Each structure stands twice: as structure tokens, then as C-alpha cells.
Amino acid sequence: MDREENLIELRNLSFTYPYGTQVFNDLNFSLKKGDRVGLIGPNGAGKTTLFHLVMGLLRPGSGEILVFEKVRKTEEDFSEVRQKIGLLFQDSDDQLFSPTVEEDIAFGPLNLGKSHEEARVIVRETCEALGLEGFEKKVTYRLSGGEKRLVALATVVAMNPECFLLDEPTAGLDETTRERFLSYLMGHVDTYIIISHSHEFLKGATDRVYRLNEGGITLV
Questions:
Q1: Domain locations in the chain?
Q2: How do strand 62-67 and strand 70-71 relate by DSSP bridges?
Q3: In angstroms, rounded to a whole number, what is the distance separating the alpha carbons of residues 65 and 174?
Q4: Each residue of 188-206: pLDDT tens digit?
Q5: pLDDT tens for residues 96-118?
């Protein structure tokens, strides 16, 4: 893909919640390959909603969503998007549903057609990269909040996506784990959007930061 092509483009996007609150009004935004972007804004500004619209988990009232230069409207369209863009949910429990850590991490690669042997290699390499060695056989629901966060991130990393959408990725992580995560991100991932309340983290992890507020998006 050409460096100047948009991976994600939102054109004149509007969205209103079923209970009547408008979140976006004629919003425009684009993300190119190599962009490392932070996203901030008050609670209710629509940060998580924006991610869910890009992934097809919600549908806009009007406007267009383009991913990899193609307008996305149908479930089939967004199924392709979900194979190439990795979403880290705000709540790790929304991401983890297998009995053990290794099964959770292997689920995505297996779903993409990898063999069980290939998936085992991916699980091992992902655990090594994120400091999760020894966690493979652990029961997921018994992990601490910070451990779940890291395993949830591992399930996204294992898919080898072209772009990451990370919703509060450092929530619940101690300083050492947060630094390890940042080191992995900067060394291995070239295109992402991070939602975070930590301006310090975004300063170290992104090239620019946007603010969502009152239905629009502005560069900070």
C-alpha cells in the first residue's frame, strides 16, 4: 500500500445513539499508513464509539466509512476489516472468552486459517514479546486486571493486523508493564490510534493527538 493512501477515512460521519444523543455531526478524519495517533476527549465524546464504527460494530446515521480505500457498508465488508485491523476493547472481558490464555491468543490465528502448529508458534512468540511467558496454561478468568489487559493485547498482536485501534491499552498496567508495552508498540507497530487519558503516555507513543468534543474532532 502506498504511504499516502488512507488506511481509514471517515467522511461527513454522523452518529446518534438509539436513546437520542448525537455523538458525531459531519465528522471527517483520516489515518495513513505510518500514522501514530492519540485520541482524547471527555467521557461521552464518542472515542470508543468511533472505534466501533470503524470496525462495523455500530453503523453511522449518515456519511461514509472507508477502510483500505474501500467504502464499507455490509457485514461482509466489515468482516474483511476485522481481519486486518486489530481492536483492543476497553473492557478486557469483552475480548477474552476461552478457558486458557493460549487458547485465547490462538483463536484469532486459527480463525485466519493458520494450522495448529503455526498457531502454537504465534502464541509462543507473542507471549515472549509481551512478557507473558509461563501464562500459556493459566485460566483466563483468574488473572488480575492488568494481566487480562496484557492477554487481551496479545490476542490482537497475534492477528498481525495492519493497524491497531487501542482503547485505553495501559489501564490497569503497572509502570514496568506499561513501559514494556510502549517499547513493544514503538518497536513493532507502525500504524495505530490510541485512546488514553494519560497525556504522558500519548506524548511518548504518538506523533500527534486529536480531541473529540461536541460532535467534532480537532488536532491538539
A1: 6-219
A2: antiparallel
A3: 36
A4: 999 999 999 988 889 989 9
A5: 999 999 999 999 999 999 999 99
Note whether 56 and 82 are within 8 A (CB). Answer: yes
Q: Which of 171, 167, 138 is nearest to 40 (CA)?
A: 167
Beta strands in 33-154 (DSSP E): 36-40, 62-67, 70-71, 85-88
pLDDT in tens, 8-44: 999 999 999 988 889 999 999 999 999 999 999 999 8
> Cβ of 179: how many Cβ atoms within 10 Å?
13
| Closest alpha carbon to 28 in 13, 44, 7 | 13
Measured between alpha carbons, how far is 13 from 9 in angstroms, rounded to an integer? 10
Cα(40)–Cα(129) distance, rounded to whole angstroms? 28
Q: Give me the residues paired with residue 24 across strands.
A: 15
Nearest to 136 by CA among 146, 125, 145: 125
Supply the pTM of this predicted model.
0.93
Cβ neighbours for 136, distance < 8 A, ≥ 6 positions apart: 100, 101, 102, 123, 124, 127
Neighbour count for residue 73 (Cβ, 10 Å): 13
* Homologous superfamily in CATH for domain 6-219: P-loop containing nucleotide triphosphate hydrolases (3.40.50.300)
Tell me how far apart the 2 most distant CA atoms of the chain are, in Å.
49
pLDDT tens readout for residues 128-139:
999 899 999 999
